[in-house]
Amino acid sequence: MALDEALLDWHSKGMIPPTIRFYGWNPATLSVGYFQKVEKEINLAKVKEYGLGFVRRPTGGRGVLHDQELTYSVIVSEEHPEMPESVTEAYRIISAGILEGFKYVGLDAYFAIPRTDDEKQALKNPRSAVCFDAPSWYELVVEGRKVAGSAQTRQKGVILQHGSIILDIDEDMLFDLFLYSSDRVRERMQRNFKNKAIAINALKKTAISLDEAKAAFKRGFEKGLNIKLEPYTLTEEEEASVQEIASSRYERDEWNYRK
């Protein structure tokens, strides 16, 4: 999270070009959205029991278990000629890269577009603290089920969009991490979840690895956004700046548990 924030800051100052980053998590980590209320929604005892990391994102949205997944982030100026002013339209442009990535792993993904008034209202008032419980505007679905979840923030004139591309998922562990009004509610939500979300490898005869996913989605972003990606390695000074952000914010309980 600190590196995503640093990339946003550096891009706002013109120090780096628009950037796409792929990463993973060690240990597996539960991230919560910027506005989520931890005490009301998260089972912190289970987070600890499973040995998970815990962090609050700078972006909105709901809880995400980052485990067997490819995580991506896109950092680009709001003034970029290809970026629409509308948040949902910017999602559409950026997510075109994810869409092409799914094609490269052999899946026929398409954009989720809420059509009815009920569907649009549900997005404004989500009933679940679990991110993958329902698709939002222009998120990716395969066979009607969500396969990627994304969140976005805009700061200093820069768009940061990051999200999860799930390779495999432990649904029991995922649902252990949230609080429910009753066991019956949890059972119903977990049952419904199976109809709403699915991991890539549950849709494929041959599982793909993290490295294979990274290569596919790199190609996907290049095709979907009509760009050519060049590798970038942080300098020692940049690494130190990232660590400073981490220690002053994302590693502190005051940040992670504050809501």
UniProtKB/TrEMBL annotation:
Pfam families recorded: LplA-B_cat
Gene Ontology BP terms: protein lipoylation
Domain BPL/LPL catalytic, first and last residues per copy: 14-229
Keyword Ligase: yes
TM region positions: none
GO molecular function, one term: transferase activity
Top-level division of the source organism's lineage: Bacteria
Alphabetical keyword list: Ligase
Listed name of the protein: Lipoate-protein ligase A
Gene source species: Halalkalibacter hemicellulosilyticusJCM 9152
